[in-house]
Amino acid sequence: MKQKTVSGKCLCGAVEIEAKLAKEAMGACHCRMCRQWGGGPMLTVDCGQDVSIKGENNVGRFESSEWAVRGFCSKCGTHLFYQINANGQMFVPAGFFNEADDLHFDHQIFIDQKPDNYSFANDTHNMTGEEAFAAFTPQESE
Fold first, then answer.
1. What are the boundaries of each domain within the chain?
2. Strands of 16-20's sheet, edge to edge?
3. Model-level pTM?
């Protein structure tokens, strides 16, 4: 099966990202940091490690936790990615990509941190923070 290639630019055009999606779906993160960073749940697509960034000199990085870095355009502030340190896996906001309108919304993480003031009607696979860490953290072989 051929992976879908998507692309987009930040608001000012200084950074462009092209990626091959790990799967044609998007998910929501309800953790406190994502909600603080973006004003609500973060809707992302999993781009794996197959990501090309043009305008890298305009990418600011913030180590938001021991296990991940958040990237943003240093000129206009557009949120660019959330990257897991252990394996380089990159999650990009779904709205960043021009071709993301037809993606299936299939999962929500940190559902245990979701406030009661909103909810999605979609039937999704829901994971707590602990389950998300287990799912997205590479396991060391014994």
1. 5-136
2. 5-9, 16-20, 51-54
3. 0.88
Can you tell me the mean pLDDT for 97-119? 93
Are 35 and 52 a contacting pair, CB within 8 Å? no
**Going along 35-76, which residue ranges are E strands?**
42-46, 51-54, 59-65, 68-73
Per CATH, is 5-136 categorized as 2.30.110.10? no
The pLDDT tens digits for 36-72 are: 999 999 999 999 998 999 999 999 999 998 889 999 9
CB 73 within 8 A of CB 60: yes
CA angle 24, 137, 141 (to 5 degrees): 120
Question: How far apart (Å, rounded) are the C-alpha atoms in residues 100 and 87?
Answer: 24
Strand partners, 10: none
